[in-house]
From TrEMBL:
Enzyme Commission no: 2.6.1.21
Transmembrane helix recorded as keyword: no
Cofactor: pyridoxal 5'-phosphate
Family matches, as InterPro entries: Aminotrans_IV, Aminotrans_IV_CS, Aminotransferase-like, BCAT-like_C, BCAT-like_N, Class-IV_PLP-Dep_Aminotrnsfr, D_amino_transT
Family: Belongs to the class-IV pyridoxal-phosphate-dependent aminotransferase family.
UniProt GO BP: amino acid biosynthetic process; carboxylic acid biosynthetic process; D-amino acid metabolic process
Name of the protein described by the UniProt record: D-alanine aminotransferase
CDD domains: D-AAT_like (cd01558)
Catalysed reaction, written as an equation: D-alanine + 2-oxoglutarate = D-glutamate + pyruvate
Cited function: Acts on the D-isomers of alanine, leucine, aspartate, glutamate, aminobutyrate, norvaline and asparagine. The enzyme transfers an amino group from a substrate D-amino acid to the pyridoxal phosphate cofactor to form pyridoxamine and an alpha-keto acid in the first half-reaction.
GO molecular function terms listed in the Swiss-Prot or TrEMBL record: D-alanine-2-oxoglutarate aminotransferase activity; pyridoxal phosphate binding
Length: 287
């Protein structure tokens, strides 16, 4: 399998990272995960715009124009012949020796790396849903930046995994923010609730598509958020991300959500979402 290191396509086991790369030492960098269906990118521009926006928020200059980046990512997915899978890319601020918290005034040479994986759609995930746990959100206050600092996210996700759940739904003082690697939603009396796209959550690209198709199809959307008390009496709960689309949450801390099955609005939203994939990427093996 080929990977990208800067603009070079090389074999995976030939890729090397400097021990004083600021991404490695400080988590100083940004990343994206872009989904492909049938060898075609889904919501590519939105992801790349968010990558450049995240980079700008930490004063990191991506050393490629958007068309240049597209050309090198195209060469990667062609080399690996990606069909339905994920493209992971990250840009770190670069190598700084000796290590120093202070960011040098003269910009370092940022380091781009990217890899791909073939990941088919998992229809059982969308239909059967998964369990979640609730965890305190102990992350920093700039969750709008898709940064490489994912220790808080990773620890919460791991706790969920240990409890036999897919995701940890996070809250600050009882107010639900998002999942450890997903956006979180609740449906109550026909209205779709989610946290505002502010500094406490990542403005998910999947979230953006879901809210658009909900509005287009007459489902009321409320972005003022919801509490753990609301969550406990929700009719439906689901989470979303690039890799898991619209995944129902059927139990939280082992208590069933609604009747413990995917709810009708969650199902409808996934149908609308799938239609968007079809529009951009053509017929899917599983619809
Ligand atoms: C913390 C967090 N929130 C939300 C999301 C969902 O974002 P997207 O729909 O763009 O994948 C992710 C995705 O990785 C995430 O890590």
């Amino acid at each position: 399998m080929k990977v990208l290191v800067n603009d070079q396509l090389i074999e995976r086991d030939e890729a090397k990272i400097d021990i004083e790369d600021r991404g490695y030492q400080f988590g100083d960098g940004v990343y994206e995960v872009v989904r492909m269906y049938n060898g075609k990118f889904f919501t590519y521009e939105e992801h790349i715009d968010r990558l450049y926006a995240s980079a700008a928020k930490i004063d990191l200059v991506i050393p490629y124009s958007k068309p240049e980046l597209r050309a090198i990512l195209d060469s990667l997915v062609t080399a690996n012949n990606v069909g339905t899978g994920n493209v992971y890319l990250q840009v770190t601020r670069g190598i700084q020796s000796p290590r120093n918290h202070v960011i040098p005034e003269t910009p370092l040479k940022a380091v781009l790396t990217a890899s791909t994986s073939e990941v088919p759609r998992d229809m059982t995930l969308f239909e059967d849903g998964r369990k979640a746990i609730v965890e305190e959100d102990v992350r920093w206050l700039r969750c709008d930046i898709k940064s490489l600092n994912l220790l808080g996210n990773s620890m919460a996700k791991n706790k969920a995994h240990q409890a036999g759940a897919l995701e940890a739904i996070l809250h600050r003082d009882g107010s639900v923010t998002e999942g450890s690697a997903t956006n979180a939603y609740m449906i109550k009396d026909g209205t779709l609730f989610t946290h505002a796209a502010d500094n406490l959550v990542l403005a998910g690209i999947t979230r953006q598509v879901i809210l658009r198709v909900a509005r287009e199809n007459g489902i009321p959307v409320d972005e003022s958020g919801f509490t753990l008390t609301d969550l406990a009496t929700a009719d439906e709960v689901f989470i979303s991300s690039t890799t898991i689309e619209v995944t129902p949450i059927i139990a939280i801390d082992d208590k069933p959500v609604g009747d413990g099955k995917r709810g009708p609005i969650t199902k409808q939203l996934h149908t609308y979402f799938t239609a968007e994939i079809l529009k951009q990427c053509g017929e899917l093996a599983f619809v």
